[in-house]
Amino acid sequence: MWAGPAMFCVLLVPRLFAGPQQARVPEWVRPGDEVSGEASEDERVIVVSTGTRTEHDAATAPVATEVITREEIVGSGARNVADALEESGSSVQTSTGFNGTSLRLRGLDAEQVLILVDGQRVTGRIGGAIDLRRFNVENVERIEVVQGAGSVLYGADALGGVVNIVTRTPEPGVEVEGRASYASRTTVDASARVAGGGRRWGLSGSGGYHRSDGWDADPSDIGTTGDGFGSWNVGVGARFEPVAPLRLRVSGDYLRRSSSGVDVTSSGAIIDRRNLTETSNTTLRGAWRGANNQLEVVAHHNFFRDQFRQDQRGDDALDQYQPTNDHIGQIGVQLEQVAGHHLVTTGVDLQLEWLETSRVMDEQGSSTIERQRFALFAQDEWSPGSSGRYMLVPAVRVDFDSHFGTYPTGRLALLVRPLEQLMLRVGYGRGYRAPSFRDMYLAFANPGVGYRVSGNPGLRPEQAWTLDLGATWTPTEHLLFGLGVFDNRLRDLITTDVVTQADTDGLQVFGYVNIGTAYTRGVEAKTSVEFLRHFMVTGSYTWLDARDQINDLPLVGRSRHQGALAFEFHQRRWGTRLFARAAAWSPRPYTSDDGDASGQALAPAYATVDARLSQGLLRYLTLFVGAENLLDAGDAEFTLIAPRSFYAGLSVAY
Amino acid sequence: MITLRHINNIAALSLCVLLMPACAEDLGLDGDDAANEDSGLIEHEDQGEGVTRTQVDGTDEADHVYLDLDLDMGTETSLDDPGWDLGFRRYDVIVDGGIHGDAGVEVAVLDGEAFDSLLAVPSDVQWITDEADGDDEDMDPDTAFVDWYDYDFMTHVLTPKDRVYLVRSSEGAVFKLQFVDYYSSAGTSGFVSFDWAALN
To answer: CB-based contact (8 Å) between A451 and chain B?
Structure first.
């Protein structure tokens, strides 16, 4: 799958070939402005909001925002957000493990990336990562990715970046969409969405069913590599505008996913493992749009329930059942005011979270942990002069956390457009990741081999200072060059260390401590060229230097070089679209007893190739066929990629 | 025209969505693979030529399982019974001697000896027993079997060293002993397996 041209713009400009006319778009979309629906396709503005919490044309937003649009999601054949991100920008790296599919931004781990749905954080991290496969795309309008520290707007966990999944709003008229496909490994994907409404109201309903067999990259044992799964989801949404300035929106969704696999432990135990995961989101949103201001109030509840069961064959000693219930409730109030050349945004965020799981235990011996957060933030988007060629965006935020107290963050972003075709951006900010409940209260013992791991309630947040420099040059409407440099300095990283050689039971005790120091820095380059009207070629490359400064070793799992090359043929009149994409990663270090003197070895380089062909029929129908991982890359130890597969399907859109 | 009644219905539907997670079945545990409760904590298997392979279920985190080598094929006994020779609790193996007992059980470490070819007690062995923690890095007692295994910090797996021990029992008999495994056939830790045979 290929996310399409928008992911080119590491430094912005999602509509690659809209050309210089994008420069005519205002620097920000003023409150009350209509930004979609009426313009022609070539002139339509792609609105993003994640980088500043205010709406901007993606091409001219002061904070670089990568966008995967609805069109690209559909065109790529993505079934879930993990699919859509999988082959997007070169600095976005997805990986599959026991905790699902997570992503890494610019060498920073999944737990240092904040995942939002419609600007609201989602919960349910397993091993620190949100499984991106649990977000199906039938009701997703676009996915926005902002790299670098975003804590100044979103608080904790936006240390390395923010991924915001924006859902679809029912628009006037009737929309009926459906999609069904069948693929290797008995993979079935079926989804549908129905929406309708008038000028002042709209309703939508969506749902999907997905399943696939597991896969095994190492047939020499009974263990499996990729989990089989089955899931279904439903969602409803409504839009109501009783009077012109007032917009109300309510939405809810529910997903149930069951996955299973077989593990073989180092001691030879065979484990049948299963996760039954449920998530629900309920959001109430109201906005009052005046001529020069907007007030928005959002109430959101996200519930994550995971039942983890492992069943040892031939014994019960390693059997485990761990139900986890994780709630998060959020209330946000945000005011945007235009004053001269300033768009000032101020707001309050309130967050309540409580987690119940047998894996944690607080000082009172309770397995239910609570956390409250309260935050104030302010941001000024200042566009001095009348030329519209500069924008300066300072922002500050203070979080009050019930566990570690007050935490201030800040960011300064600068956009300069010296030429119509040239966009320069600078951003410098501070981000942090709050210690997770696991970090603070984990209670895990493995007496069979003599150790236990204990949480540390006294942990401080991990922090990072991130610097981004970027330039985008579009000398013609068919040509784009992008170049970016980033530097992330991380402090107080949370890691495990030996706390006690022997406790009262004789067990060695490991605990979490704030001792890690690291950096990730690199260069990103992207280019694209459109030719002969229907053809497009894109290329990207990332050089990454990620280092653990405590041990003076490269951070494991990161490739120093990543590159991708994509080709697309899109004949709109015929309804034909063909694309192929190749991506390659250089060797990655990993910790090994068989490694060099530093204890590291290199996992081999690998490359993937995907291809897809779709053909429109009878106006409303589209047939598609495709192949993923044509080179059959991947193994059971380092590169957990599903084997080569083929698929075919049909979609309908009215 | 949308009315407040419609909004209420939508809110009610959203509430249903919110509460749906309670609907999923409870996976729980089935416990159908539990070991036979009637079987003992010690199992023997005759390996021929006087060699016995013994597996001790030492998974109990609190109490040792005690073994008397002098009885026929080794017999499970208790701390209160005089004459036990070896005690097993997870990876901790103790003897009825030194700080752990008065029966005078001793151990000799024979690195480089082959278990099968060892038919008599060598003349120059050095006998040791369980002692209190000495001047070392850890705070554990310095038992005779303190380092019978290698520990892999990456995988947390214990692997017996390729080493033969001699055990002089509470009744003065000498046995050769070699640890074989720390895991049951199902992969559960705490099941110490070892081959042993009496020496003349």
So the answer is: yes
Dmax (CA) of chain A: 76
Asked if A278 has any chain B CB less than 8 Å from its own CB, the reply is yes
pLDDT of residue A19: 31
Q: For chain A, which ranges sit under pLDDT 50?
A: 1-43
Model confidence at B114: pLDDT above 70: yes
State residue A246 phi and psi, 5-degree precision. Answer: -100, 130
User: B62 touching A, CB under 8 A?
Assistant: no
Q: Give me the pLDDT at residue B18, please.
A: 53
Subunit contact A321:B140, Cβ cutoff 8 A: no
Cα dihedral A255→A256→A262→A266 (10° resolution): 60
Counts of helices then strands in chain A (DSSP H, E):
4, 36
Mean pLDDT of B35-57: 83
User: For chain B, what is the domain count?
Assistant: 1
Identify the domain containing residue B59 by its residue range: 40-199
Which residue in A has a C-alpha nearest to residue B11's C-alpha? A250
* Helical (H) or strand (E) element with A345: strand A342-357
What is the SS3 assignment for A71? helix
Question: How many structural domains is chain A composed of?
Answer: 1
Residue B73 confidence (pLDDT): 66
What residues contact residue B117 under an 8 Å CB cut-off, 6+ apart? none
Q: What would the DSSP string read from start to end of A426-448?
A: EEEEEEEEPPPHHHHHBEEEEGG
Structural domain including A362 reads: 5-653
Chain A residues with CB-CB distance to B185 below 8 A = 314
pLDDT-derived band at B22 (thresholds 50, 70, 90) equals low
Given the DSSP bridges, would you call strands A479-500 and A588-591 parallel, antiparallel or unpaired?
A: unpaired
A500 touching B, CB under 8 A? no
Whether B187 sits inside 8 A of A446 (CB atoms) is no
